[in-house]
From TrEMBL, chain A:
Any one GO MF annotation of this record: iron-sulfur cluster binding
Record carries keyword DNA damage: no
Protein name: PepSY domain-containing protein
SUPFAM superfamilies: 2Fe-2S ferredoxin-like, Ferredoxin reductase-like, C-terminal NADP-linked domain, Quinoprotein alcohol dehydrogenase-like, Riboflavin synthase domain-like
TrEMBL record, chain B:
Pfam family, one: PepSY_TM
Name assigned to this protein: PepSY domain-containing protein
Residues annotated as transmembrane: 203-223
Species assigned in the record: Tahibacter soli
Keywords of the record: Membrane, Transmembrane, Transmembrane helix
């Protein structure tokens, strides 16, 4: 339930978020503006109760009614300044007559001015009254005509006097005017500023209520109470980190409320991660010894059901209290930082670059094909021109819309797979990095932090990294192997294929690799030569943007030309690595072909 | 730590402090915007028809002044079927028959019932009528004593009349009472339900504003393409 509530919360949130900010802002302003001032009470003269006796020589009420010559609903005695008058009313019409002569009384500019002055206290001086034939926004709701009297005080007070009966209709000032603007924003009636029963505000209020409800749900459902307690008051928890053979690596302590990822990080045990603990890269997996907690949606999404069942969880999503002992695959790589010197940089294609590192300490046997390093990308800033590229790639780079300076504020880590077995190159580490140019059209996104860094490297530069990590590896045995890949997925597949062929493998090995254009396909000559040398290895390059009968999407072509008519698919093993869409489509295809999951190994670069 | 991390953390903590109030704001706000303010005011439940005064003979001002020495003014109007005069004198108001000068105030129960029935637009009978000396919360700002006339309808319509003038001072019904109750939560004045400048509201709405901003900040991160692996 929680994931879709989270999603709906987010989308509705976007719609109402702005109005939410407006509501709270305008509400805050209204609570801060003193209501007394908003109503103009601070410039209002106190009224003493009228004690003057009504003149008995005035015309009688019956005479006043008779003289009116139109229906009258109520008759009232009044004093217009000092003059006794009758105020007659019918429906929303009001008028005054002199109480002695019964002649109609007009509220002229001078009278209006005097009335306004009598109502006012303060050091403002009134200006000449202006006559309005109908109500303006400031006196909305009153029937006209109306006199407007502006005072020259610091609040810009304006009094509105009815030209019908001389009553003060409204006392306005700048405080009121601010109030009225935020009130308009609050009720979302941008024209009349008084109707708060319109569909737009109802819709947004309903959306807002949904946000508030789902937010409270999320607050209750997804946060551990202990997170709300300051760290030093929380219970301390012990965590033992084991290696996959069960050897104890470290014992650490941390506070309740920390995740395993954070707790380990505090002790210098940096689990592999591309997302920094954001539950979105899926690299920080650990296995819980004993009973693991219920998996969350993020665990299932990144680890898959079978690993979840084996007790794997994302460390950045695992409360320290839920796991006393955990197993990690990486061993000492968690706390050692290695350095290597760039020996060679080769632009294999315009946007795939091979980088060969000579490590300071010789790599051990854990550096197996399929494994990846976490490159410690430092903070940097350099000019666009600092990315060197060979002359024949100039047009490709010129077509990119890159910012003039490329910068990364704080250090991050990024994963790069070994692109050749270390034994094949005297213990050197070979990486193949694809350049992430960022989003080029529409809303711009900066180019990738890690790939930009790698593309700035020149021979002699020092690179820091940790690793190796990962569980993408060749399985023991001699089953027929099908490799399907695309993009930078070339890196681990290439290392695996070389490792097998160098070991003298005799099983059939197929490699299907997809690229958009021939220009973007790396190592074509190398693969062709391998295929010529090893009769059990075949290499198939599939180009999706080149119109030849044999081209298309790599998984579809592999299906049509190999898998569909394969005599014994059940005996094959599959190794997949490539862009997420390709990977997903290939895995779906293999599921349809009923290949059991344990025969499929894949590495998801998530890019 | 990434900014998204701080945004989430801020939003969560502030949410803990203000979440329930934010919910109350939205729930009460939704109620207030959904039900027409005219319905809340109860204009459909009770109103006085605009009927002209007849030209029949009427007490002279001098007669009124003799009856109420120190008269400062008066008002001629209609009350149910007769024409009456409200006389202002000595800081008070008295009601007399416009023709006979017969004293009508303070209004007795039968007269108060008549006035209420004439104003009431529904069909239900009167359930109770009482002259009250202490104004209940729902008419806290009105002067007492007051006639409280409650009708036996589903909405629990109640009219409050002035015994001095026969004027309807307030009409209350359940939709209004809900509005008022929710308004109390909306402005967080749990006593008088009128002070929109109370410190609690000022503090809560400041936090609410920061809360909304942190939410917007968080949304910015949620909608950005996930920083892929
Ligand atoms: C196990 C594993 C092995 C891998 N092996 C390899 C390998 O061998 N070779 C290889 O090239 N890659 C490999 N990757 C991918 C690599 O780790 C990086 O993810 C990749 O290089 C991109 O990282 P980056 O720092 O350049 O981009 P990031 O800065 O992480 O950005 C990722 C993408 O998001 C875009 N973006 C940046 N900012 C924003 C923003 N504000 N809003 C929206 N989008 C934005 C970027 O343009 C980029 O396209 C591997 C990944 C994993 C998990
Ligand atoms: S650190 Fe990226 S998912 Fe856990």
């Amino acid at each position: 339930m929680t994931p879709w509530i989270r999603r709906l919360h987010k989308w509705f949130g976007l719609l109402v978020a702005l109005q939410f900010v407006v509501w709270t802002f305008s509400g805050l302003v209204m609570s801060l503006l003193d209501h007394h001032r908003v109503e103009g009470e601070h410039h209002r003269a106190p009224v003493a109760p009228d004690t003057r006796a009504w003149p008995v020589d005035a015309a009688s009420p019956a005479q006043a009614l008779a003289a009116a010559k139109q229906p009258v609903q109520a008759l009232d005695t009044r004093r217009l300044l000092d003059r006794p008058v009758y105020r007659l009313a019918f429906q929303d019409k009001e008028w005054l007559v002199d109480a002695h002569t019964l002649a109609a009384v007009e509220v002229d500019a001078a009278t209006a001015l005097a009335i306004a002055q009598a109502d006012y206290v303060g050091d403002g001086v009134p200006g000449t009254p202006q006559r309005l034939d109908a109500a303006t926004l400031e006196v909305r709701g009153h029937a006209g005509p109306i006199w407007r009297v502006d005072f020259s005080d610091e609040d810009s007070t304006t009094l509105y006097v009815s030209a019908q009966d001389g009553e003060i209709l409204e006392r306005r000032n700048d405080t009121w005017r601010w109030f009225d603007i935020v009130w308009m924003l609050h009720i979302m009636d941008y024209s009349g500023r008084q109707n708060f029963n319109h569909p737009l505000v109802i819709l947004l209020a309903a959306g807002g209520l949904w946000i508030a409800l789902s937010g409270v749900w999320l607050l209750v459902a997804s946060f551990r109470a202990s997170e709300f307690v300051p760290a030093r008051w929380r219970r301390r928890r012990a965590l033992t980190v084991l290696d996959t053979n069960g050897t104890e690596l470290r014992s650490i302590e941390s506070h309740d409320g920390d995740t395993v990822y954070v707790a380990m990080g505090r002790h210098g045990l940096q689990l592999p991660s591309n997302c920094g603990g954001g539950q979105s890269c899926g690299l920080c997996e650990v296995r819980v010894c004993g009973t693991p907690p219920e998996p969350t949606a993020a665990d299932r999404e990144h680890l898959g059901d079978s690993r979840v069942r084996m007790g794997y969880r994302l460390a950045c999503n695992l409360a320290i209290g839920d796991a006393a002992r955990i197993e990690v695959a990486a061993g000492a790589s968690l706390w050692t930082e290695c350095t290597g010197t760039v020996e060679r940089v080769t632009a294999v294609t315009p946007f795939l670059r091979e980088i060969v590192l000579a490590p300071a300490t010789p790599p051990g046997s854990e550096f197996q094909p399929g494994a990846y390093l976490q490159v410690h990308v430092p903070g940097y800033a350099f000019a666009r021109g600092d990315i060197a590229h060979p002359e024949h790639h100039r047009d490709d780079w010129a077509a990119l819309d890159l910012p003039p300076t490329l910068a990364n504020k704080e250090g991050v880590r990024r994963s790069y797979s070994l692109a050749l077995p270390v034994e094949k190159c005297d213990g050197r580490l070979t990486l193949l990095a694809r350049f992430s140019p960022g989003r080029q059209h529409g809303k711009k996104h900066p180019p990738g932090k890690g790939s930009t860094y790698l593309y700035s490297l020149k021979p002699g530069d020092t690179v820091r990294y940790s690793g190796p990590f990962g569980d993408f590896a060749l399985k023991p045995g001699e089953r027929e192997k099908v490799f399907i890949g695309g993009g930078a997925g070339m890196a681990p597949l290439r290392a695996m294929i070389h490792a097998r062929l160098d070991a003298g493998a005799t099983e059939r090995i197929h490699y299907w690799y997809g690229a958009r254009k021939a220009r973007e396909a790396p190592y074509v000559d190398e693969m062709t030569a391998l295929a010529a040398r090893h009769p059990n290895f075949s290499w198939h390059l599939v180009l999706s943007e080149e119109a030849e009968a044999s081209n298309g999407l790599v998984h579809e072509v592999a299906h049509a030309r190999l898998l569909r008519d394969h005599a014994n698919l059940a005996a094959c093993e599959f190794y997949l690595c490539g862009p997420p869409a390709m990977l997903a489509a290939t895995r779906k295809l293999l599921a349809q072909l009923e290949i059991p999951p344990e025969r499929i190994a894949f590495d998801d670069f998530k890019i | 730590m990434k900014p998204a991390f701080w945004a989430r953390r801020a939003h969560k903590w502030i949410g803990l402090a203000i979440g329930i109030q934010a919910l109350l704001w939205m729930a009460s706000g939704l109620y207030m915007v959904s039900i027409s303010i005219h319905v809340i005011h109860g204009d459909h439940l009770a109103k006085s028809a605009a009927r002209p005064l007849s030209g029949a003979p009427m007490r002279e001002a001098s007669a009124l002044a003799a009856q109420f020495p120190g008269m400062t003014g008066f008002r001629v109007k209609r009350l149910v079927d007769r024409v009456v005069i409200e006389v202002r004198h000595d800081g008070r108001t008295s009601l007399v028959d416009a023709v006979t000068g017969e004293a009508l105030s303070p209004l007795g129960e039968a007269a108060a019932r008549d006035v209420a029935v004439a104003l009431y637009q529904g069909k239900a009978p009167i359930r109770s009528a009482a002259l009250i000396d202490k104004a209940p919360q729902e008419v806290a700002t009105r002067p007492v004593p007051l006639w409280r006339i409650a009708f036996d309808d589903a909405n629990e319509t109640t009219l409050y009349l002035s015994p001095d003038t026969g004027e309807m001072l307030a009409k209350r019904h359940d939709l209004w009472r809900w509005f008022d109750f929710l308004w109390m939560f909306h402005i967080m004045d749990y006593d008088a339900r009128t002070d929109v400048n109370n410190t609690l509201l000022r503090v809560a709405s400041s936090i609410g504003f920061v809360f909304a901003l942190s939410g917007a900040w968080l949304l910015f991160y949620s909608f950005r393409r996930r920083p892929a692996a």
